[in-house]
Amino acid sequence: MKINKAFHQYAGMLTLIGGALAAGNVHAQSEATECIAPAKPGGGYDLTCRLAANGLEETGMIDQPMAVSYMPGGIGAVAYNHVNGVRNDDPNLIVAASTGAAVNLALEKFGEYEADAVRWLGALGVDYGAIVVKDDAPWENLDELMEDLSDSPDDIAFGAGGTVGSQDWMKAALTAKSADIDPKSLNYVAFEGGGEALAALLGDHIQVFTGDLSELKSQLESGKIRVLASLSEERMEGPYADIPTAEEQGYDVQWPIWRGYYMGPNVDDEAYEAWAERLSELSKSDEFSQLREDRGLFPMSRFGDDFNDYVLEQVETFESLADEVGLKQ
């Protein structure tokens, strides 16, 4: 299997990298800590690892820098297989994950290992989905959009930076489903990224953009867009304070894009609980609040068993939707 071959190759590379990094540090702990970003440098998983690494170091919760290693491949599958097959009991290793990992697990893209094959550790930040239209669109609220969508789904083009089955498509599909509209009836246009999709909205090539709140700030300030709903549990603060949630408009749909971590399946309870407590304390610090805000994230504090249960429930929701619209092969 290609995934297995790839992660064994990366395992050897990481052993060398980890040894080199550890050798250069004075050990205040028994072993150095490490975060694996399951992608190339510079992306969202890198941000997630750096969020923990920088936060823990700046608050003095670790005495030496946390090593950040990169393990791209299989949209996270290579790292997931590596942790299960090679480093399943490493008490000093955490791995970056996100809502995207939960989606891919639901779509069975991680090979033989399922969602409960690891110990989901916690989330330090979150972004939220949003239903966005142009400022001159005919819809003033989500009700008006859903009414027209129910009558003429082909006439309203949704667009976002991902194909059918992606996170951005899931936002549109779950919103439609909450209004008893068949997600398979959506007229959905896939773009290479959120920026391209937003440009298509402003250029009248699509009518609805399912993006993330954090990427909308400049457009909100310019008055070029109207956000019909945030897919958050409650209204956000600051520039997003006037945006109603989908739920307060009567639509039971939320889309948190969490930034979190997991550990190997055989990590003992003591190490797992110590990490959960460490991240929980980090999330409460003023220094970390600024780090999180600088990265365009909102607060999210779920740790330990609470977060583990949350992720598993989320995967079940995605599995049900994937089955309903025929996404599973």
From TrEMBL:
Name the record gives this protein: Putative tricarboxylic transport membrane protein
Pfam families in the record: TctC (PF03401)
Entry keyword annotation includes Signal: yes
Key words of the record: Signal
CDD domains named among the record's database cross-references: PBP2_Bug_TTT
Alphabetized InterPro entries for the sequence: BUG, Bug_dom1
Family listed: Belongs to the UPF0065 (bug) family.
Signal peptide: 1-28
Transmembrane segments: none
